[in-house]
What we know:
The complex is a heterodimer.
Chain A: E1 5-9, E2 14-19, E3 23-29, E4 36-42, H1 51-57, E5 68-70, E6 76-83, H2 108-111, H3 119-129, E7 141-143, E8 147-149, E9 157-159, E10 169-174, E11 178-183, E12 198-204, H4 213-217, H5 219-229
Antiparallel strand pairs in A: 1-12, 2-11, 3-10, 3-12, 4-7, 4-11, 5-6, 6-10, 8-9
Chain B: E1 18-22, E2 27-32, E3 37-42, E4 49-55, H1 65-72, E5 82-84, E6 90-97, H2 111-118, H3 128-136, E7 150-152, E8 175-181, E9 185-191, E10 207-212
Antiparallel strand pairs in B: 1-10, 2-9, 3-8, 3-10, 4-7, 4-9, 5-6, 6-8
Amino acid sequence: MSTLVAHEVPGGAAWSVLLRSGRELVLTARQNAVNCSVLLFAAGDVDRLNVPDTLKAQMSACVRAPMVLMSDRGAALACVTGSSLDWHDALCGHSLDRHLERFGRSDYAEHRNEWRRSARAGLLSELRKHGRGEADLHACVNFFSKVAVADDDRGSLHFVAGHAAADDWVSLRAEQDLLVVLSTAPHPMDPDCAPGPVSAQIRPADPVAPDDPSMLFRAESARAIEAARAVFA
Amino acid sequence: MTAVVETAVELRDADAALDRVVQAGDGFAGVIPAGGEFRIVDLCGNQAADTLFYDALDLGNRYSATDTIREQGAVYLTTGSQLLSHRGDLLVTISADTGGRHDTVGGACSQESNVIRYGSHTRHQHACRETFLRYGAPFGIGARELGHNVNFFMNVPLTPAGALTFADGLSGPGKYVQVRAERDVLVLISNCPQLNNPCNGWNPTPIRLLGWWQA
Lengths: 233, 215
């Protein structure tokens, strides 16, 4: 299908877009080991992605196709319509400035646009442009990253290096009008600081058919999609 | 200046500055002064206590499940777990735990998520999110300020294959979890009214809150 918008987000940068209902955002890794921390909001509303509700309603410890990304108010924000990867982290949150300290000092004066910035700094920068701020930060999905959970007493976490490779992709179909805010800063548990670019492509999505994989995935997934249709009545 | 209660000192119910029973489906909001010890007792067993923490002097600095999970490198909470804000600041430390394991992945029930999980007949049942908003409102905590909460006494195992399950709680009558406030902390609790899954053993019951500090 025809591409409506194509944008290359450099590594370590942040970006936001208003994504209309019925359109699909495709994120593609442009090099190995990229990360993309994504926040989702209902456009013009306080409703936003609720990772705990998303995971528990679909009995999953990670985000993968064809899961539905659900809001605080039980409505589908987006469906993961496809992905070359079977695991996207949603447990570990985005990076903070303190995660960059171990890589040494970096600022604009010295490194110009190669300076290291955390996902928190980038996400806040984009949120403020939309009249939002710190209170709107919530659990994100770290697309292209995997943090494995051990079967031990603590549920220990282990960052899986090299999970994503160049050309890995994920597609999200908006089930209502959305504000998408994202950062390409490295995952906070990544021992390396090598931010890589992600391309964002927006295209019309196919209409949701009765045999849509997200509709068939679980009864909970279908109910969330139906709830999104009832957001405006 | 608030005096610090040493954990080595025996904490007796009679000495508690706070002693409150929260009925099933009700809530609580209050400040734990820095150094104070705050205990949630599962009076009848198998009850979920949905809990949020805020920096009492700056409510924008609130509990973050993801920061807590990541920085402790583990999913489950128990004695020694440090509960962090989304700025990475330490809010409370779990100082005692006779329950064994607590969840910070599963979040709270809401009327809307009940519909998603159990069907439209649950739309008007009472749920934790409503309790959070009711008790948070006098402090200025609204929908934007509600983060993802701790579920004390709940057991939500994750598997290496990436599944999430709900298992029987490890709690029982009289078991408790206790946190030490590492700064002045506002605690917001919904004593979960959930009737549709076994997190409350299908029968929500009261909890008791005990706090030790010098007023």
